[in-house]
Write a structure and sequence with these properties.
Length: about 170
């Protein structure tokens, strides 16, 4: 069994989601989001790091997965997102957890089957696949999708390794 913490970094809201993967079952553990407030960027990065570090210590994931930064229209926003992502990665690394990174396209492909799915499609599939009673908030759903993507990739890699060992 592997417990995976997925993180959707953001300079204003950072989502997190924890899933447990066993042989043929995925179980929801916890999820939520951290609001960083309106302080300076360094103050907001501190909130992200301390909040995620507390989550790592409390829930003891085996691995951490983080969404990679993508460049959209605004370079300044991408830089702030990169800083938030750095704080998220550091929260895992400082607790000696392996950290994996996935592009938004990889994450959407893993959770919806479409690399360019909408936020609403991601939220819907997270709710359905995890059997949640309510649709999670966007950043929370994205973080759960990151954890799902990593868990799926991990299981596939194990199956490939096992198949290679048999031959």
């Amino acid at each position: 069994m592997a417990r995976i913490l997925g993180i959707d970094p953001g300079s204003r809201i950072t989502g997190y989601g924890l899933l447990e993967f066993s042989a043929n079952k995925v179980s929801y553990v916890a999820s939520g989001f951290l609001k960083t407030g309106k302080g300076s960027l360094p103050e907001r990065l501190r909130v992200i790091y301390e909040g995620l570090n507390g989550i790592v210590r409390e829930h003891q994931p085996d691995e951490v997965a983080v969404e990679q930064v993508f460049m959209h229209r605004n370079a300044a926003s991408a830089l702030k997102l990169g800083h938030a992502r750095g704080a998220a990665v550091l929260a895992g690394v400082m607790e000696d957890k392996p950290v994996a990174e996935y592009s938004p396209t990889q994450i959407k492909q893993a959770i919806t089957g479409k690399g360019h799915a909408s936020k609403e499609q991601v939220q819907h599939m997270v709710r359905v696949l995890l059997g949640l009673a309510e649709t999670p908030q966007e950043d929370e759903a994205d973080a759960l999708a990151v954890a799902w993507c990593h868990g799926s990739m991990r299981q596939t890699q194990r199956r490939i390794a096992a198949a290679g060992a048999v031959q």
